[in-house]
Amino acid sequence: MPYISEYEKKKAEAFTDSLNSILELVETLSSVIGEGNYLTIANHLKILNDNKGVNEVIATIQQTITSQITQFRSNPIVFTQQRRTQMELMASKLQSDTDKTRVRCVRCDRRVTQEYLPFHQESQICQDVYRTKYLTCRVAKTEVFRYHDAISLIKLWCSKTGRYKKFVGKKPLE
Fold first, then answer.
1. Residues 130 and 107 sit within 8 Å (Cβ to Cβ)
2. Taking CA 9 as the corner, what is the angle to CA 8 and CA 10, rounded to the nearest 5 degrees?
3. Is 168 helix (H, G, I), strand (E, B) or coil?
4. Is 34 left (phi over 0), alpha (psi -120 to 50) or beta?
5. Which end of the chain has the least Cβ crowding within 10 Å, N or C?
């Protein structure tokens, strides 16, 4: 039976422990890095364990990990979220001089400038929000989309048949 010095034995144990730790880490990341890259890394770790071509294998593993990180960071979702982290907070934006001139619309609770308020209250979104708030109070339900859709269809029918003013009120803006 061959003999080994205590220093060489500790060195081999440290190497094996490190290799097993890396293998466990790769195992936990297997769902992220993909099956092909997982097998490549596992094969390189096997070669490392056999102590053949250590430098080349380490370089290939580093290249594989770097390419995966680059691919992950170039993902559009990651890129968008990274850009969002650099945006200015709304709280500081609300304190600016332009927001001090804004008022709250009594119909839909949106903040708009005083000059834009009459145009905003004629907009479809303000009318829809006001209608859903009104319906919620009247029918005492929070899900009023069916009522809202029915009212919209009736208004559309009235507008197409020329009966809008008679049934709904003033003629809508085109």
1. yes
2. 90
3. coil
4. left
5. N
The answer to whether the beta carbons of residues 22 and 45 sit under 8 Å apart is: yes
What are the tokens at 49? 């364990």
0.70 exceeded by the pTM?
Answer: no
Predicted local distance difference test score (pLDDT) of residue 158: 79
Tell me if 118 sits within 8 A of 104, measured CB to CB: no
Under 8 Å CB-to-CB from 67, ≥6 apart: which residues? none
- Give, for 171, the enclosing helix (H) or strand (E): none
Nearest alpha-carbon partner for 156 in 148, 129, 132: 148
Contact 113, 101 (CB under 8 A): yes
Three-class secondary structure of residue 111 per DSSP: strand
Strand partners of residue 128 = none
For the chain, 174 residues long, give each residue's pLDDT as a single digit of tens: 577 778 777 777 777 777 777 778 777 777 777 777 777 777 777 776 666 555 666 677 777 778 877 777 777 877 777 787 777 776 655 555 555 678 888 888 888 888 888 888 888 888 888 888 888 888 787 777 788 788 778 877 877 887 766 665 665 554
Cα–Cα distance for residue pair 22/45, rounded to 1 Å? 8
For 102, the 3-state DSSP assignment is strand
